[in-house]
């Protein structure tokens, strides 16, 4: 195989690298930014765009996200003329740059020269160029070319005074996270050798005694390509783990190059959202200098705005409670859903300030100017096809001015006293091919718990299993099917020390190897909860289950026995009639452990979680009687800020005293928030 040096041609550059100077701060208030793709536009448009950015208050611009074919138009030949010019224009305008490495999508010359880098799907078919991310994460050839590009970009701009942030690739794993080709197979085998050491240990972990799957050597192992039957669950789970690690290794490789030339913070844009699940961001987050996320409302969900709140809380959890950056969102509709709905007037501002309320210190958009061609030409942008004489542009400018007024709260932290456990590993395992019912999926259960807590006025920290629970009054554990012994022990220790816990059905069932814990469900949590489940008894979609109290439920029931827990409610009908449906075990230290053995209707779930929160002494910050008013507090040691976001069609009054920094009006006793509006109250004293 040829080396890059053997293939390289003369390197073409236009002038000397810009001189070094002090790097600007990444956080100067609440940043307002966008992706900019100047390569889509004639250079005559660039100066107009920069002038409009200044008018709109844009102060952070992502560049070179998909720039590879423009700065390396032929192998080994580099042309930075255009990128130099636009960086210079933005710098002159005082706009900071989030500079991409440009490696997200390979240029056509690379896939033409090296078709072996193309990804392979689980059915053995190749995925070809023409879209994006047409490369296999395990490809050594792709890695070599990508790092050569990063080296050139970092050499040239590593000390540029405008560069405030490095942006590795783009949405890593959005399309190509799982690659099943022979090179991935070899890398997977190496990963398994490192994890298990011996083939005997792997056979035990995967339960290969079932269906005559026992391996005699690592060389026999393949990725979990499509089979005639369901696939080995342990193999599928480990392939997800390997695939996440493979892309993380690519991120580390690009970052290492950047760090040789620059001390500017490095990150990549996560995709904490309902439809992307292939990367375990708990393992990625410690590698980020600052956590960033892309989020788009998903109208395939029943409650898109509720999912936005969950995604923001989870992103904040990944950031360890520190502020984070919203790297992408849309001003209006996207282009990739079955029904791409425009945002209602005011919704852009409400969505943006929901992210800020939940910890974002930057609000950025894809993209600056709506494309005229390509797959995303109908994706909304800051400058729409209609231009600046449009309601959308006026709302963009208004949002920018509002964010300017919120600059003083940058760096503050969100206050929460309820924790919710979430795990990507559990998502992969719990939603496996062979499970009790496909009518129940993990993320829907997580969303239901988070939405219920939010409706009840609580602010929720989303944390990984095994994380410290110190400082929380209540911890909610939705359908945590896979849990390690030490993770379960953290939860038990929390409850025994006086904490309150709510665990829902299909939790504690297997260990980290997807091995069922014998002795009765819910396995790892059986002693903590004081219950034992003999059998799952799910029901068909549409079937209503009634509890003795009159509560309604669906989808799932269990044949449960109380083993020290108090029975609070029972199944009145269905396959588990007469069995406990909701239990509570009081612990000697004042803590309590609740178990919910079914999928409760939303109103009934709200009631149960409110009762659990009250028992834990957790007082809601919002008013459960006004579930359409989003209430969140950010604070530091000196000040606190109360966000009041009215998602309803009527005005709402909420207790508050201070100054509304959005309107500038004083607030005495109660804030009056008109329908669809947002107030941010600088409170008189820190909460």
UniProtKB/TrEMBL annotation:
Zn(2+) binds at residues 136, 179. Pfam families: Glyco_hydro_42, Glyco_hydro_42C, Glyco_hydro_42M. Residues 35-405 form the Glycoside hydrolase family 42 N-terminal domain. One of its GO terms (biological process) is galactose metabolic process. Keywords: Glycosidase, Hydrolase, Metal-binding, Zinc. The keyword GTP-binding does not apply. GO terms for molecular function: beta-galactosidase activity; metal ion binding. This is Beta-galactosidase. Substrate binds at residues 132, 170, 336. GO terms for cellular component: beta-galactosidase complex. The active site is at residues 171, 328. InterPro entries: Beta_galactosidase_C, Beta_galactosidase_Trimer, Class_I_gatase-like, GH, Glyco_hydro_42, Glyco_hydro_42_N, Glyco_hydro_b. Belongs to the glycosyl hydrolase 42 family. Residues 628-670 form the Beta-galactosidase C-terminal domain.
């Amino acid at each position: 195989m040829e080396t890059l040096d053997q293939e390289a041609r003369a390197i073409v550059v236009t002038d000397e690298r810009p001189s070094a100077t002090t790097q600007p701060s990444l956080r100067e208030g609440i940043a307002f930014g966008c992706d900019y793709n100047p390569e889509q536009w004639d250079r005559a448009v660039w100066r107009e765009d920069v002038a409009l950015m200044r008018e709109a208050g844009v102060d952070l611009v992502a560049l070179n996200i998909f720039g590879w074919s423009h700065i390396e138009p032929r192998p080994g030949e580099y042309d930075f003329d255009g990128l130099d010019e636009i960086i210079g224009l933005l710098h002159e305008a005082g706009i900071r740059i989030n500079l991409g490495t440009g490696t997200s999508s390979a240029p056509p010359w690379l896939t033409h020269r090296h078709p072996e880098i193309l990804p392979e799907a689980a059915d053995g078919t190749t995925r070809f160029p023409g879209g994006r991310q047409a490369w296999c994460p395990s490809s050594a050839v792709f890695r070599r070319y990508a790092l050569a590009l990063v080296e050139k970009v970092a050499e040239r701009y590593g000390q540029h005074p405008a560069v405030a942030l490095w942006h590795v690739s783009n949405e890593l794993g959005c399309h190509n996270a799982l690659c099943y080709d022979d090179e991935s197979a070899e890398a997977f085998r190496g990963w398994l050798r490192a994890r298990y050491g011996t083939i005997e240990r792997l056979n035990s972990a995967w339960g290969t005694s079932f269906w005559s799957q026992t391996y005699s050597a690592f060389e026999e192992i393949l990725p979990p390509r499509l089979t005639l039957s369901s696939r080995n669950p342990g193999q599928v789970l480990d392939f997800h783990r390997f695939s996440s690690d493979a892309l993380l290794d690519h991120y580390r490789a690009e970052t290492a190059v950047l760090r040789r030339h620059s001390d500017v913070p490095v990150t990549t844009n996560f995709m904490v959202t309902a439809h992307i699940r292939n990367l375990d961001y708990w393992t990625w987050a410690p590698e980020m200098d600052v956590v960033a996320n892309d989020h788009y409302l998903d109208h395939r969900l029943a409650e898109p705005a509720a999912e936005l709140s969950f995604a923001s809380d989870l992103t904040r959890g990944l950031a360890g409670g520190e502020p984070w950056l919203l790297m992408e969102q849309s001003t209006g509709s996207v282009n990739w859903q079955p029904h791409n709905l425009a945002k209602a007037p005011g919704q852009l501002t409400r969505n943006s300030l929901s992210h800020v309320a939940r910890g974002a210190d930057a609000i950025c958009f894809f993209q600056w100017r709506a494309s005229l061609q390509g797959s995303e030409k109908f994706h909304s942008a800051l400058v729409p096809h209609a231009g600046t004489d449009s309601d959308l542009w006026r709302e963009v400018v208004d949002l920018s001015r509002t964010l300017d007024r919120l600059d003083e709260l940058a760096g503050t932290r969100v206050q929460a006293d309820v924790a919710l456990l979430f795990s990507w590993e559990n998502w992969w395992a719990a939603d496996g091919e062979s499970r009790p019912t496909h009518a129940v999926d993990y993320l829907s259960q997580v969303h239901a718990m988070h939405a219920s807590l939010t409706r009840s006025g609580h602010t929720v920290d989303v944390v990984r299993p095994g994380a410290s629970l110190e400082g929380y009054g209540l911890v909610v554990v939705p359908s945590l099917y896979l849990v390690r012994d030490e993770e379960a022990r953290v939860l038990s220790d929390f409850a025994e020390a006086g904490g309150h816990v709510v665990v829902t059905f299909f939790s504690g069932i297997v260990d980290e190897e997807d091995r069922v814990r014998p002795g009765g469900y819910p396995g790892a949590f059986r002693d903590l909860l004081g219950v034992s489940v003999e059998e799952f008894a799910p029901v068909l979609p549409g079937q209503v289950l009634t509890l003795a109290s009159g509560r309604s439920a669906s989808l799932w029931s269990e044949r449960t026995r109380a083993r020290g827990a108090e029975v609070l409610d029972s199944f009145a009908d269905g396959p588990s009639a007469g069995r406990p449906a909701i239990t509570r075990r009081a612990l000697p230290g004042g803590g309590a452990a609740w178990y919910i053995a079914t999928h409760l209707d939303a109103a009934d779930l709200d009631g149960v979680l409110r009762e659990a929160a009250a028992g834990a002494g957790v007082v809601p910050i919002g008013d459960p009687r006004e579930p359409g008013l989003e209430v969140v507090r950010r604070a530091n040691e000196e000040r606190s800020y109360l966000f009041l976001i009215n998602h309803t069609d009527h005005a709402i009054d909420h207790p508050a005293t201070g100054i509304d920094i959005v309107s500038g009006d004083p607030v005495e006793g109660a804030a009056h928030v008109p329908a669809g509006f947002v107030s941010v109250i600088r409170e008189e004293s820190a909460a």
